[in-house]
Amino acid sequence: MIAMGKFFDSILDNHKVFIQKQKIFFTATAPLAAEGHVNLSPKGMDSFRVLSATRVAYMDIVGSGNETSAHILENGRTTLMFCAFDGPPNILRLYGHGYTVLPGDAEWPELAPLFELQLATRQIIVADIHKVQTSCGFSVPYYEYLGERDQAQQWAEHKGADGLELYKQEKNRVSMDGLPTAMY
After folding, report:
1. CA distance 46 to 62
2. Of 1, 4, 16, 179, which sits most exposed with the smallest number of CB within 10 A?
3. Is residue 105 part of a domain?
4. Residue 101 domain flag
5. Maximum distance among all Cα pairs of the chain, rounded to whole angstroms
6. Domain of residue 23, CATH code
7. 92: Cβ–Cβ under 8 A, 6 or more apart, which residues?
């Protein structure tokens, strides 16, 4: 019989190796209100770092919304998921309590050098992990990694620094449910 899921209190070395091999991960958050919208976002661009056995961070770029920041500002809850799309099947989830680090915050000088910052980098999301889960991933299909998309970088360059600031004020200040983000 095959074990379908295992839980751990921290990120083990083999978990870290698995995480570092993945080209995409997913982040999920939700507001406290029952009628609020659950958010699930794919992330890429070599933007994820394991800081310790119980702390991770990822670089977040400007997007059409800022749900993650709003949700973790309200309640801190976040789940991060990695799936094996090649090699042995595996799913790894990190359950934690997150917070947003903005340029100018005390932690920014410590965290920013860990990433190749983009023009569109708006924040770094940090999560303290209290539970790690692995599961089989038997039904996750194989996919071939072909490379990173460059549309986000092109879009940011077209907007320019001032245009990005205006865009963030227009689109990233509150969640779709009206919750404030850490940005303002």
Report:
1. 16
2. 1
3. yes
4. yes
5. 58
6. 2.30.110.10
7. 15, 18, 19, 81, 82, 132, 133, 134
Is 144 among the domain residues?
no
For residue 61, what are the contacts with CB-CB under 8 A and spacing of at least 6? Answer: 45, 47, 118, 120, 121, 122, 152, 156
Q: How many domains does the chain have?
A: 1
The C-alpha atoms of residue 177 and residue 169 are separated, in whole angstroms, by 16
Q: How far apart are CA 39 and CA 144, in angstroms?
A: 26
Residues 6-26 have a mean pLDDT of 98
pLDDT in tens, 127-156: 999 999 999 999 999 999 999 999 999 999
- 13: buried, middle or exposed (CB in 10 Å: 19+, 13-18, 0-12)? exposed
Contact 25, 34 (CB under 8 A): no
One-character DSSP codes across 80-94: EEEE-SSSS--EEEE
pLDDT exceeds cutoff 70 at 1: no
Q: Per the domain annotation, does 143 fall within a domain?
A: no
